Amino acid sequence: LGADVTYQFMALNGLMHWNDQKYKNEEQIRQEYPQILQDFLDGEFPSDSFEALCSLLERVSGKPLIVRSSSLLEDNFGTSFAGKYESLFCPNQGSEAENLRDLTQAIQRIYASIFNPDALTYRRSKGLQDYDERMAILIQAVEGERFGRYFLPQGAGVAFSRNQFRWSAQIRREDGFMRLVWGLGTRAVDRVGNDYPRLVALSHPLLHPQASPKLLSRYSQQFVDVIDLEDNQYKSLPVGEVLVPENQAARYTALRYIAQVFRDDYLAPLRTTLLEGDPHELVITYDELLRRTPLARRMRDLLNHLEEHYHSPVDTEFTLTVREPFSPAPEVDICLLQCRPQSHLKEGTARLPASINPADVIFSTGRVVPEGHVAGIRYVLFVSPEAYFALPLPSERARLGRMIGKLNAKMESRPYICVGPGRWGTSNAELGVPLGYGDIYHARALVEVTGQNLGLAPEASFGTHFFQDLLESNIHPLATYLDDAGVIFNRQFFYDTPNRLLEFLPEAAPLAECLRLIEVAAYRSGS
Q1: CA distance linking residue 128 with residue 120, whole number of Å
Q2: CA dist., res. 365 & res. 450, Å (int)
Q3: pTM of the prediction?
Q4: Alpha helices in 278-384 (DSSP H)
């Protein structure tokens, strides 16, 4: 990358001083990462590298590209590094100079992401701080097709050979699971905004987590990630905006397999490949794809085959295309983009009591619960939903996330769990607490609370990079819906127990109404 950047790389290694107990200068690295990135972007490639990249751009002839990381530590058993390093789209629709600039800057950003604070924290938590992190680059052609001015696949997502998100007793764990989205697969792996992918239990592919058509419509994909070929940009757009008639090249042959129309409180399949009526009435369900093609069976066979040869459950990324869509028995092509060992919670057994005194229950949930046992919890980090959503500025919510990160560092030897509103790990502070894995990696469980006008329901995050991080660190993910019948949420415990926050973090005083650290023994002695 040139002498200046090479020197910066060596100097930064000097900042990363580790010992057995604590990562030094973590806050300094977090503060300096924007400058680290800029130093990489200011670096220059040697002439032979430029020539090779120019030759590559000539060979792909204007097809969109994605630039991805490929380090020695990624995708190993128990250390996936999922989402820790950047993956960047290059639409590749500009001039030769513009396309080359975009490609080289994408490569530089990925090398810089070695110093991403979450990546450094993840390495330390896995005991990999002393391992050499060699970074290589993958440049792949984006799978998909042109649709009007946009480029996108007919379907994309992530699939797992073991289903750890079973919302019905009839679902078989060993048959696997998919998160399926229309467009580029980024919405399947990231926890984004007010959006919901199609969750598919491969043992029962037409069984939705939601019971009614109205709920299916509400908890469906609202935005689609595309490459805008005319603007030469990666974009996230409302589904209805992409499907307006002027964007359709005569007809969209895959539409009937992707969407259904919601009218008069019921969902009906489309009878034509032409969009009729209001595009905002369409709901992304993929029901016709799952009903009329062998996708679920093909994916089960593929995942079983990979698991057999990996000698481990697997986690894959894929795109798909319907072949011969007008055939009575259409086929579906699956393009496998990536495969790695599937993250999972450590297995254990727990003996549940036959009956529980309601006075002993702190919270309960009747929703999807992972198997596991967390013992000896001494502290509960609680974010008050009412106080959180009353914070007037996004900057204050971001500051709350930073305070949680600082508190997490002090709780390393003190077993604790996190409880709070909405979707944790999202980048949108309006939907939940904006933080990353590096801010809660010492926690034993994460309990997301929703209901009673407390914002959107926690999205089933199974399969996202954030969820993978929780599983790898044995942080048990739970959600409690306060509007569900019979649910217990002990407000006396969460709101009236003394707040120990300032004993650990005096600088968090301005947020003490919102952020509470509860010592369990302070609520009931000896517990």
Answers
A1: 9
A2: 11
A3: 0.72
A4: 287-292, 295-310
Distance between CA atoms of residues 447 and 363, nearest Å: 10
Q: Give the integer Cα–Cα distance in Å for 200 and 1.
A: 44
DSSP symbols for 61-119: TT--EEEEEEETTTTBTTB--TTTS-EEEE---S-HHHHHHHHHHHHHHHHHGGG-HHH
Structure tokens at 491: 């407000």
Q: Distance between CA 144 and CA 151 in Å, rounded?
A: 6
* The two three-digit tokens of residue 272, written as one number: 């034509």
Closest CA to 164 of 446, 382, 471, 394: 471
Considering Cα of 60, then 235, then 182, then 249, what sign does the dihedral take? negative
Cβ–Cβ < 8 Å for 108, 69: no
Q: Are 341 and 310 in contact (CB under 8 A)?
A: yes
Among 128, 17, 20, which Cα is nearest to 72's? 128
Segment (H or E) for 450: strand 445-450
Q: Which segments in the chain show pLDDT lower than 70? A: 1-33, 72-83, 122, 125-133, 190-194, 245-250, 272-278, 343-349, 368-370, 427, 452-469, 471-473
How many residues are listed for the chain in this entry?
Answer: 527
Secondary structure (3-state) at 4: helix
CA 182, chain centre distance (Å): 16
How far apart, in whole angstroms, are the C-alpha atoms of residue 383 and residue 369?
Answer: 21
Q: Name 225's bridge partners.
A: 183, 236
How many Å separate Cα 223 from the centre of its chain? 15
Q: What count of Cα atoms within 13 Å lies in the side-chain half-sphere of residue 144?
A: 29
The span from the CA of 181 to the CA of 186, in Å, is: 9
Q: Where are the beta strands (DSSP E) in 349-428?
A: 379-383, 416-421
Helix axes 26-41, 96-112, angle to 10 degrees: 160
Radius of gyration of the chain (CA): 24
| Tokens (6 digits) for 4 | 């200046």
Which residues are bridge partners to 151 per DSSP?
146, 227
| Contact of 206 with 168, CB cutoff 8 Å | no
